[in-house]
Structures are given as C-alpha cells and as structure tokens.
C-alpha cells in the first residue's frame, strides 16, 4: 500500500529480499495482487542455480544484497545492518543520488493502527509518505542521547 501511495503501479517490478517467509502464500498474496511482477531469489534463479547456495545464509544474503545494490530504487523496511550498509554502498556507487525510500515508521503506525483504514488511506496516507522520500528532501533525526552533549561540552570548554 505504501508503494501504491507513492505512485508505483502494477507494472513495477519488485524484488523482496528476505529469508524464508512464514506462511508466504497467505501473507504475500495481497502484495502479489498489487504488484504481479514480484520477484524473490526463488523466482529469478533455477533450482539448480539456487542449490549451491542452500545452507549458506551469508551467500543467500549476498544474492539479495547484489540485486538490491543494482536496483533502481531501494525501500528500507528494517533497521538492521543490511539496509544501512546497502544504503551507504548505493550512495557511493551512484554519487549520492541513489533512490532510497525510508518510511517514517511512527506515522505508518498511526495509519495502520486506525480501525477504519480506508478513510485513513484517503486522509493521511499521502502526507505520511511525502515527507520521507529521501531522494527529494531528507529528514534528519534528532539525537536524544546524552553522550553527544557531553562530547560537545568537553570540546567547547576551556581548561
């Protein structure tokens, strides 16, 4: 739904970089209906090609990394090392102009927590998404840790 709200239509090719998805048929069907050109490791490789990677999670992750690295746009959905390394690598390769979408999870929670999701989609969805498209205008997070304040205090103070 987020991608549809941003203007991606059913002619958009999507690659889902993930491990084994629990009950994939049930949970991936709505996404596949919105984006019929949905791809995974299993759909872009033959069983023979994929067999050499079975049992090697790092090699499987490297396949995902390579596909995401060369993609036109990348949507970050989690805060682990994988997307952060990938974002940095894409910025380096494309001179800082790689399309990376980082959804604002706090606003998305408000949207999906609404029991009347249809009205939420029409009212909140465009504004919830438009502020976080990093290739247009990045938003900077405010650091709440006290460690930065201590470091700047010691650097600014004179002994």
Short description:
The protein has 159 residues and is mainly α. Helices cover 52% and strands 6% of the residues.
Describe this structure in words.
Keywords: Carbohydrate metabolism, Fucose metabolism, Glycosyltransferase, Transferase. Pfam families: O-FucT. Belongs to the glycosyltransferase GT106 family. This is O-fucosyltransferase family protein. InterPro entries: FucosylTrfase_pln (IPR024709), GDP-Fuc_O-FucTrfase (IPR019378). By secondary structure, the protein is mainly alpha-helical. The protein has one domain. Helix content is 52%, strand content 6%. It has ten helices and four strands, in the order αβαβαααβαβαααα. A two-stranded parallel ribbon has the order 1-2. It has a two-stranded parallel sheet with strand order 3-4. The chain is globular. The C terminus is likely disordered.
């Amino acid at each position: 739904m987020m991608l549809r709200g941003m203007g991606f239509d059913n002619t958009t090719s999507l690659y889902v970089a993930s491990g084994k998805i629990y009950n994939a048929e049930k949970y991936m069907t709505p996404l596949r209906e919105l984006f019929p050109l949905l791809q995974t490791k299993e759909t872009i490789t033959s069983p023979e090609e994929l067999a050499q990677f079975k049992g090697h999670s790092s090699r499987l992750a490297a396949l995902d990394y390579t596909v995401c690295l060369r993609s036109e746009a990348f949507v970050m959905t989690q805060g682990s090392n994988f997307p952060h390394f990938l974002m940095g690598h894409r910025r380096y390769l494309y001179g800082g102009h790689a399309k990376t979408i980082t959804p604002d999870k706090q606003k998305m929670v408000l949207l999906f927590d609404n029991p009347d999701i249809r009205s939420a989609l029409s009212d909140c969805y465009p504004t919830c998404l438009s502020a976080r498209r990093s290739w247009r205008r990045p938003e900077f997070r405010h650091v709440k840790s006290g460690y930065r304040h201590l470091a700047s205090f010691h650097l600014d103070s004179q002994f």
